[in-house]
Batch of 4 targets.
Target 1
Amino acid sequence: MNKANDLIAKGIDIIDFGPGEPDFPTPGAISAAAKKAIDDGFTKYTNALGCNDLRKAIARTYRKRYGIELGPEHVIAGTGGKQELFNLMLALVSDGDEVIIPSPYWVSFPDQVTFAGGTPVFAHTRAAEGFRPSLRCIERLATEKTRGMIINSPANPTGAVIPEDELRRIVELCHARGWFLVFDETYEFFLYDGVPHASPAKWFNEFPETIIVVNSMSKTYSMTGWRLGYAIADAEIVSGLGKIQSHSTSNPSSISQFAAIEALQSGDEEIRKMLDAYIERRRWLVPALNSIPGIECRLPDGAFYVFPKVSQLYGKGGITDSTTFAAYLLDAARVAVVPGVAFGADDYVRISYAVSLPRIQEGVGRIQEALARLNS
C-alpha cells in the first residue's frame, strides 16, 4: 500500500481497492453539528469515558433497538472502535492467556492480544460455509488458558455474518467457561439479500459479565477521520477501560462526540443511501470477478469487501503468494488490493467496493487484462 501511495503521489493513476472506509462524505447534518459545537465552545476536555450526553445517546440507541436495560455507566467512548478493542485486551488479558479469534481475521486483533501479553489462537473458518464462525470450530480450541474470544460480524475481510442461533450457542459457551466475548459490529448496517444482523447486545442483561460490544461511527456514518467509537460492557469493565484511557489519550475529541450524538439521532437515511450503492456495486463486482479465469469469489453477507481466492494463479509470472499477487497487479494493472496473508489467509486478497462503480468497473477490466497476459 505504501508503494501504491508513492505511485499516486507521482501522478500515476492507481485504482485503489484497499481502503477500509466509505467513499461518501460525512452527512451534512453531522458536520453541521460539529461546527455548532465549535461555535458553542464545546472544545474543552470531557470525561475521559466520553461526555454524558453521548454515552446516554448510545445507551438509548441500544435500549430502543434490543429492549435491554442499559445506562451510561455501561458505555465508554474512545478514539475509534480500535482504541476500545485495544483497551479491552489491556484490561482483560494477562501474560499467558489465550484468546480465540476466527480466521480470516481483521489485521489488528492478533497484535492487540499479543501486545497485552496474550496468545491469539485461530479458529479457522471454511469458505464453503461462508467463513462464518461456528461453535464447533471454537469449542475444540478451548484450553485451561483460554480467557475469551473476539468475533467480528459482519466481518472484515470476508463479509461473513454469524447466524443468531450460532451466536447464542457461542455466548452460552463463553458464559459457562467464564470467558469474555468481545463482539465487533462495526459494519452492522451493511447487510445483503435479507441476511439479518445478530448482536449479542440483545442478551446483555442475561450475560452482563460475558458480553462486550464494540462499535464505531466510522463506517456507518462515513466518519473515519473523526475517530469516534465505543464499547458497551459491564460497568466494572467500563471503569477499567476508563482508567486505561485516562492515562493514554483521555477523552475522544469533544467535537467528534457532539457530531456522534447527531449521527445517532438523524443518520438513518444516509445509511440507506450508502447501502443502496454497496448493493449495486456488489451485484456487479462478484460476477465480474468470477468471470476471470483463476479467480473464485463468493458473495459476502455484509460489510463492503469481497475476498476472492486467487491461489490458482500462483506459480505463474513469479507469483507465489498473495503478496506477490498484489505486487503483480500493482505493477501490471495499476490496481491496488490487500494481500490475504495480512488476514491469515494467503490464498486470498481483499478488494474493497467502497469505490465508485465506474472505478470498480475500470479496475476489474485492468485486472482481467493483466491476468490474461499472465495466463498466456
Note: The chain has two domains: 2-17+269-370, 28-266.
Target 2
Amino acid sequence: MISIIIPAYNAAATIERAIYSVQKHEPNAEIIVVENGSTDETADLVRKLEDKNVILVHSEKGVAKARNIGIKAATREWIAFLDADDLWLGTGGIKPEGDIAFYDYYKDSALISFKLKGEEILPWLLSKPTLRMTSWAKIFKRSFLIEQRILFDESLWVGEDAEFLLRAVQKAKTVKFYGYPLYRYCRETTSVMRSINDKRTEGYLQMLQSVKGIIRTADNMTQPAYLDFLCAHVNLIGVHDIYAYNIKLPWQRRNEMARALINNKIIYEDIIKLRPWDFMKLQRLPSSLFRYNMCTAGGLICFARSIYNQKLVQRKKMRII
C-alpha cells in the first residue's frame, strides 16, 4: 500500500528507531532508506536488519536528491516521507484518499492538529509555514507525483519541503485532511537546523525567490499570505543565524546583518508592506521591528528564542540518555 522514504545522512544513532516505528505500525510498508553520503555506520545498520521490505539505496549528499531517488524507487500506491530522527505513528488503518492526505502530528509531546474551516488551502499553508509546510505527516499518491512530474528541487537545500508541497498542492485535484496523528517530530542535537551554517541565509533567499515565482499568478487571498510566509523565514534566519546565542559576534555586527537582510531585494519588496499594527501579530513581530529599523529589539526576541530552542533540545537529549 505505502512506500515510506527515509533520507539518512550520518543517522546511525536514530535510523533503527525510525525503521522500527514503521515496522510496528505499518508492517507491510515498503521502507526505502536513502543513504546520502554518510561517513558513519548508517548503511551497515540498515543492512543488518535483513528485512525484505527494507530497501537500501544510495545517493549523493542532499535531502532533496535523496527524496527524489526514493520517489523513483517506490513501487507502492502511496508515498510518505520520514526523517531519520523522527517516528512514524501509522494511519490507524484508515486508507488515504485523494492526491494528498494531510495528517496531524506530534512535535515532541505537543499535538499539531489541522482543521480547515472554509479556508483556501494555499493561504492557509503560507500563513503558518513552519507548522504546515513540511513534506512529512502527509501521504502522496504516487501516480499523482509521477504524472505531474513533481519532485523536490535539488538546487534548494533549505526550505525544499515548503517549495515541494506548494507545487504539489497547486496541482492536486483533491486534498484530504485526517484528524489522526501520523508522525512524531523529534528535536535532535544532530539536526541540520541546530548547527551553524553561514550559507543558510543564502539558501533561504533562493527558496523565497522560488516560492514567489510559484504564487505570482495565485489569487488575491494567497498573495497577502505570502507576507506571513516571508516573516516566518526572516524570523528563522534571525533565530538560527544572525542572533543565535552560540555565535560569537558583536551585537552591532548582528544588527548590521539584520539590516542587510531586510534590504535584500528578494525580501525588501515585500517586507515594506508591513505596517505599524503588524507589531501586534506575534509571527510578524521580529520582522516588523527589523523593517522599522528597531533591530536591537527584534534581535533580543530572536536571541531569546534561540536560547529557548536549545533548552528544548537539551531536555530531549536528557530524556533519550
Note: The two ends are 35 Å apart (CA to CA).
Target 3
Amino acid sequence: MQEFRGVFKLETYSQAVDSIVREPRTWLVTGAAGFIGSNLVQRLIELGQNVKVLDNLTSGYARNINEIIKNTGIKKASNLDFVEGDIRDINECIRACDRVDHVLHFAAQISVPVSLEEPVFNNQVNVNGFLNILFAARDRRVRSLVYASSCAVYGDDPKQPKTEEMICEPISPYGLTKLINEQYAALSHRVYGFRTVGLRYFNVFGPRQDPKGAYAAVIPKWISSLLSGQTPVIYGDGEQTRDFCHVENVIQANILAACSQDPEVFGKVFNIASGRSTSINDLYRIVKNRLAEIYPEINGSGPIFNDARFGDIKHSSADIGKAGRLLGYEPTHDLEKGLEESLNWYVNHLS
C-alpha cells in the first residue's frame, strides 16, 4: 500500500521491518512474559533488535521468556534484557525507559471478571501503572509509546461494526480503565507533543495464550478441554459474535505504529482485528473439526451451555479501515489461517 498525504509516506509492513533491520533500535516491552508481549518480543529479537522486558510475572510466565531464548538461539537472545518489576513502581518504569527508542506497553490487569470483583486493584494497575509508563517514557525522551487498548471500551452498543469515532460506554471497570488510558495518551500528545498510539485489540489468539487466563482465551481453553477429555463450556447461547485476530496481525500493527512518522497517527487509537466476525458456536465447530483431524475421538464432543456472564458484550465486529489508511495495516491472518498456524503449538503445549 503506497500513498502520500503531504510529505508523509505511508509505509508497508515490509518497509517498516526493513527500516528497523537496517538501523536496529532499543525497545521496551512491558508485560512481555505474557501471551501477546512474548510473541512480539520474539519477532523483534529475530529482527536483530535490542529488547528490554519489564514484567512482574503475575499473569505472564518465565517459561515464555525461556521459549523465546530457545526459539531465537543464545546469540540473538543476548539482545534480550529481562527485568522483573512492576509498572506500579514509578522508579522501575523510569529505569526501564532509560535509553529506549520505543515502548510497547502490554502490562495490565487483563480480566473483565477480576475488574468487576476488584475494581480498585484493576485501577491501580491499569490506570496508575499506565501513567507511570506514559510519563516515564516522555521524560526519558522515548520516540514513541504504543499501548494496548481493547474493544471493551465500546461497551454493548448494538451498532456494528465498531468504528473509532463511536461514543464509548464501557460496561466493565476493565473497559473503563482502557478508555482512561486512551484519554491520558491523547492528552499527553496534545499538551506535551509526546508520540502515543493506542491499539484497540479485538479477541487476539495464537501461541502462548493461557488456557487458564481471562475470558478472551476461549480458543486455548476449548483446545485444552477437548485434549483432556473434558466438555468445553459456552457462556450464553453461543450466538454472540467476536472478531478473532491472530497475534501475527498484532505484531504487524505494533511495528507499523512505532515506526510511523505521520502526525495524523499520534494521539489516536486504531481498531486492530481481522475485519471479520464469527459466532462462538461457529468457532467451536471450527476448533473441534480441526482437532478431530488429529484426534478422531474428539469429533462427537459437544459443548455445555451455561448462563451468560455479566460484563460480556453480545456482539463485536471491527471496522479496520482507519488502521489501513493511516498505519498501512493489512491483516495477513484470518481465523482459519491463524488456527492452522497455531494448532501445533496448542496441541504440543496443552495436551
Note: Residues 21 and 47 are 6 Å apart (CA to CA).
Target 4
Amino acid sequence: MSSSTGILDPGDTRPHAVAEFGAWLALQWELALAPVSAAELVRTEGGPQAALAASGRPRRGRRQPAVADVLAKLRRIGARGIPLDSAAYPPRLARLSDPSPLLLVRGDVESLRAPCVAIVGSRAATAYGLATARALARDLARAGAVVVSGLALGIDAAAHRGALEAGGRTIAVLACGPDRIYPERHRELAERIAQDGAVVSELPVGTSPLPPFFPLRNRLISGLSSAVVIVEARERSGSLITARHAADQGVDVFAVPGPLSAPTSIGPNRLLRDGAGVALEAADVLDGLGLAAAPDPPTAAVVEKGPADSGVRKRCEPVLAELSRERATRDELARRLGRRPDQLALDLLELELAGEIVRDRDGRWGRAPRGR
C-alpha cells in the first residue's frame, strides 16, 4: 500500500505509488459494474493486477483514460482512493457480497467508519416530507450519527442539509464518477458536504449518471449504514430498492408514516405494514445505534446561528428582501441585484441551510414558509 493509512493519494508521485493507484483504477474501469466478480478476484488472486489478469480483460468497449490524466483530475477535486484490500476500507461495506473494488472519496474518509444512518425518499417530496427529513437528520447528527443519502432532489437533499445545519457530518453517495455532480444544482451542496463529511463514488472518473447506476449506488447507501429511514416514497421508488438492499444486508429499516391518500406515503406505509420500524423521531432510530438523542438547543442559540449574524446579515439582507417580494432563479436574482450569479452562490447556500429560503421544482428561490 502506498500509504501507511491504506489510502491511495493521487498526489503521491513515487513510481510504486502511481503504479498501485493505476492498477486499482484499471480494475475499477473494468469491473466497477460487476462488484461481486471484482471482490472474488481480489480476494482469491491477492491484488488488483492479478485480479485484472484473471478477469480476462478487456471487457469494456471504451479505452481507459491515461492514469496520469485520471490522477490529475482526482487531485483537482481533492479525492483519494480506498481499495478493497485496505485497512481503511469501511467495515460495513467490506462485509457485503458485492463491495466496491475501489472507493473514490472527497472529504473525511473516517466518516465512512462512524455510526451512520441513511435517510432517503422521494425526489418529488411534499413540504411535510422535506421538513420531516430535515428535522430527523438534524437530530440524528446532533446525537453523533453520520447521515447518509444520495444527493438527489427532495428528501435526500433535505437530509444532507439537516445534518449540516446541526454542525454534523453527512455522506453523499454518487451514481456517477467523483468528478461529476448530479443533479448539477447540488454542486454547492456537495462542496459543503465534502468539507465536514464525504462525497463517495465507486464509479470511474468521467462516468455519467445513467439509470442503471442508481440501484447500484443504493446498495452502498444502505451498506454504509446501521439503519435506513424511508421518509417518502411512491409505489415504484428507488428508495424502496434501498430498503430491499438494507433488508438483504441485515440493516434495520424504518419508515415515516404518512397520509393514506398521499402517493408519496404508499412506500413507507407498506414498509410499516410489512414490519419496518416506525420513525416518529430520531430517538426511535438512535436506540439501535447505542446513541442517545441530544437535548434540544436553547432557543436563543438557534436564533444566533441564523444567517442574520454580523457580516453575513449585511450580505444576505438584500437577497432576502428581493425574495420576499418575488420568487426568482439565481440568474434573475443576480440581474435584480446587479451582481454576478456566481457571487450569489454562497449567500443562497447559507440562507438555504439556515431554513430561510427554499427552491421549488422550477429552480426558483423564495422565502421559506413560517414554521418550516
Note: Confidence is low (pLDDT under 50) at residues 298-311.
